[in-house]
Design goal:
Shape: globular
Largest sheet: 7 strands, mixed
Number of strands: 11
Number of domains: 1
Low-confidence stretches: none
Helix content: 25-40%
Order of helices and strands: EEEHHHEHEHEHEHEHHEHEHHHE
């Protein structure tokens, strides 16, 4: 079977990757046996083909399908994210989070910076009540609504949203319309430099890693390239390791997600040192990009 991206499918790739040379990485992804994964020559950008069609009106997150919610709560995801990027938020001004879900991050940010005016974009109506309880300045169901309202935010942030977007250029174009002069955009995505892929090359993890709701998978290098191709300036790429030694040892031992509480208890502070070492090397499961207008 011919394993390559058809020329007519290249037009859907973000710049500058439409002319890149891709190699076939694997056949089959999580829950999709007939989807192929292709990577560019620097192993910095991956694309799924054929692109799976996902109905987000009936979307069930993978962690929910696999029952990983309780484990994820032990990771303090929102607190650790905020600690990693709190220096990027001003003491006063307007913050817009795209894909705010229940508003957990905005709630934590308010406690840290009470003078900020907080706004959300979230199409999921089932989480409306949770966001409304936060008394946000605005609670939009789409970026288009925020544009129509004339919003100008000092910081626009989106966490684990950009990798779901099939038209990154158009999406960033919308975001720029709600960005205030001298404002910044903070984007967090899963990274192709994930150590279980880049350092351990664990086959069972690779089969789990690629999933239908992520048509493109970025590294810090490719994220910078894609953002820069729209005319934005990438001010910083910040590697961030979410999962620690306990999680990785569990993958190596059991070949599954969810960690191991016995390992977590035994490792103690070694987990934090391990994450710091991976971040220093740039081999992380997550990466932030900070961008602004030229």
């Amino acid at each position: 079977m011919n394993r390559k991206i058809p020329d007519d499918a290249r037009v859907a790739l973000p710049l500058p990757y439409r002319d890149a040379v891709f190699s076939h990485r694997r056949h089959g992804i999580f829950d999709e046996v007939d989807v192929d994964v292709f990577v560019d020559g620097e192993n910095a950008f991956a694309v799924l083909h054929p692109r799976p069609v996902l109905d987000y009106s009936h979307y069930v997150p993978r962690q929910q399908k696999l029952g990983l919610g309780p484990y994820k709560k032990t990771l303090d995801v929102i607190d650790r994210r905020l600690a990693k990027i709190e220096d990027l938020f001003p003491k006063a001004g307007t913050i817009l989070e795209i894909g705010a879900a229940e508003g957990g991050f905005l709630s934590k940010l308010r406690a840290l910076r009470p003078q900020l005016s907080l706004m959300a974009v979230e199409p999921d109506r089932e989480t409306d009540r949770a966001r409304e309880a936060l008394s946000l300045a605005h609670n939009f169901s789409s970026i288009a609504e925020a544009i129509d309202a004339g919003v100008k935010a000092d910081v626009v942030c989106l966490f684990h949203v950009f990798e779901h977007i099939s038209d990154p250029r158009g999406f960033l174009g919308e975001i720029r319309q709600v960005l205030a002069p001298r404002g910044r955009i903070i984007i967090e995505v899963p990274s192709l430099d994930d150590p279980l892929l880049s350092l351990y090359a664990l086959p069972v993890y690779e089969a789990f890693y690629f999933q239908r709701q992520h048509p493109f998978v970025y590294s810090g290098r490719s994220l910078s390239q894609v953002i820069g191709a729209t005319g934005l300036v990438v001010d910083e790429i910040r590697p961030y390791q979410r999962y620690g030694l306990e999680n990785h040892l569990a993958w190596l031992r059991y070949g599954r997600p969810g960690g191991d509480p016995v390992l977590a208890d035994a490792l103690g502070s070694a987990d934090q040192a391990y994450k710091a070492a991976l971040e220093a090397k740039g081999a992380t499961d997550t990466v932030f990009a900070v961008a602004s207008e030229p």
